[in-house]
Design goal:
The protein is of the alpha/beta class. It is about 40% helix and about 20% strand. The protein has 15 helices and 17 strands. Bound molecules: adenosine-5'-diphosphate, aspartic acid and magnesium ion.
């Protein structure tokens, strides 16, 4: 069997959903399980609705609910026509938006948005899209059956970034998804959403988490391949929105792909690779607008290259802890990283000197409490609006000149911190947030422009 995950643009409207149906039709023999995102942009709108409602702006929130309802109903009729079956689907979707409107009203009354209620709302995008896609597949003659992701994707109860429980997911996938496949059905479920073990309350895996859902299901069912269908030809040498002449990477190693995803290549959720690696399942990234393309194949084996791709992200916070007396004392770093663990904040880049430790973090949700606890260890300074740019290549450390070329390309742009990962495949620089794009462009030109290879 294979897992096919379709992102927001691949299910963004009736035409895109029809293309998705054609892609699955060509794969029926391979026993596909389908994972879908919300209609493109729907999750952002749902989160805005929740925030607006909690701020007391109910009229605006309800207007946005109606906008989303209309969009789903219009696409339903474009896909299914106007017969009784289409009306059934339209009323099922409409009931979801009634629920959304009630949730928005309740939030206005409460005036407070908890992570749990945010998940109740942001999960509605995948709840709706999966129902719509099942009906569209059936209309295209595919034997699709809806699977409520909350019965399979069992997580802990850390709302908005729930941790999947692999054993419970494997058990549920074998109990619920496998029999459908054996009966010749095509199971279709929403990505991103899950339910807390024990309570069954709706959770989500974090933004962009549908890729992760797909790899978790693939690992649970020992898929032959996990296909991630998106709006670009595969993983490219840089984000094409930043570097328009970025090139397709035909093959890449799991480790490199994972580094790129963690350091800003949004095309894959950073957690996607781990379940695939554990079960040795290849991941393929493909373009749903150009299904004839070969995409990017992510496996253990990959060509050795000094630089495979460049990734970057802004909105990063740089924290420096200075503690001249204590830094080299036993247990200091452990105590410091305990603080990050306690506040569930992961660190991207670390550099140490004799008197200070500098780290970058991406998720500033718990920043204030984190800094208070860090102050117990030394003087803390915080620099917001930083960015990181990473050069990733499994042969980066092969004695070549990549490092000097990278620094020469960055030129006069200010570097706040620099780190070569212990695996030697990732060189990361911390720069001002607004310099992320120029640094990516300069590095890409240095390593990938015509003639760059020869230097
Ligand atoms: P989906 O909705 O299909 O999950 P995303 O928007 O999450 O799609 O991811 C696809 C986008 O990722 C692309 O449109 C592209 O702008 C961005 N991206 C960032 N880095 C890369 C990269 N190295 N290769 C390809 N796409 C990238
Ligand atoms: N719809 C979710 C999001 O926008 C999950 C995903 O698309 O992967 O974050
Ligand atoms: Mg995505």
């Amino acid at each position: 069997m294979i897992v096919c995950k379709f992102g927001g643009t691949s299910v963004g409207d009736a035409d895109a959903i029809a293309r998705t149906a054609a892609i699955i039709s060509a794969r029926v023999d391979r026993q596909p399980v389908v994972v879908v995102s919300a209609l493109g942009g729907a999750t952002n709108q749902l989160i805005q609705i929740a925030e607006q409602a909690a701020k007391g702006q109910l009229i605006g929130a309800l207007r946005a609910v109606e906008g989303l309802r209309d969009r789903h109903i219009v696409e339903t009729h474009r896909l299914l026509g106007n017969d009784a079956q289409a009306e059934d689907v339209a009323s099922e979707l409409s009931a979801m938006f009634d629920e959304l409107a009630s949730l928005a009203e309740a939030l206005t009354t409460l005036g407070d948005l908890t992570p749990r209620s945010l998940d109740a709302i942001s999960s509605l995008g995948e709840q709706a899209s999966s129902v719509l896609v099942v009906a569209a597949f059936a209309k295209h003659g595919l034997p699709a059956t809806h699977v409520d992701a909350r019965e399979v994707m069992i997580t802990d109860s850390q709302y908005t970034r729930a941790e999947p429980q692999a054993d419970a997911i494997a058990e549920a996938a074998h109990r619920i998804v496998m029999p459908l496949m054996r009966a010749g059905r095509i199971p279709v479920m929403g990505g991103f959403i899950g339910a807390a073990l024990g309570t069954g309350v709706t959770t989500t895996l974090g933004r962009g988490g549908s890729d992760y859902s797909a790899s978790l299901v693939g690992a649970a069912l020992q898929a032959e391949v996990i296909e991630i269908w998106t709006d670009v030809d595969g993983m490219l040498t840089a984000d094409p929105r930043v570097v328009p002449d970025a090139r397709l990477i035909h093959r890449i190693g799991f480790e490199e792909a994972s580094e790129l995803a963690s350091f800003g290549a949004k095309v894959l959720h950073p957690n996607t690779i781990a379940p695939a690696v554990m079960k040795g399942i290849p991941v393929c990234v493909l373009n749903s607008r150009r299904p004839e393309g070969t995409g990017t194949l992510i496996t253990f084996a990959a060509p050795r290259r000094s630089v495979t791709a460049i990734a970057g992200k802004s909105g990063v916070t740089l924290l420096r802890v200075r503690s001249p007396r204590m830094l080299l004392t036993e247990g200091f770093l452990r105590r410091m990283f305990d603080v990050f663990e306690r506040h569930r904040t992961s660190v991207d880049v670390v550099a140490t000197s004799e008197v200070s430790v500098s780290v970058t973090i991406d998720d500033a949700t718990n920043l204030e409490a984190l800094v208070i606890d860090l102050r117990a260890l030394g003087d803390v300074t915080m620099e917001r609006n930083r960015g990181i740019v990473s050069i990733v290549g499994n042969g980066l450390s092969d004695g070549g000149t990549s490092m000097s070329r990278a620094l020469a390309a960055i030129g006069d742009l200010r570097v706040h911190m620099l780190s070569l990962s212990s695996s030697g495949i990732n060189l990361t620089v911390v720069v001002d947030g607004q310099q992320v794009h120029p640094v990516m462009q300069r590095l890409h030109a240095a390593f990938f422009s015509a003639g760059a290879e020869a230097t």
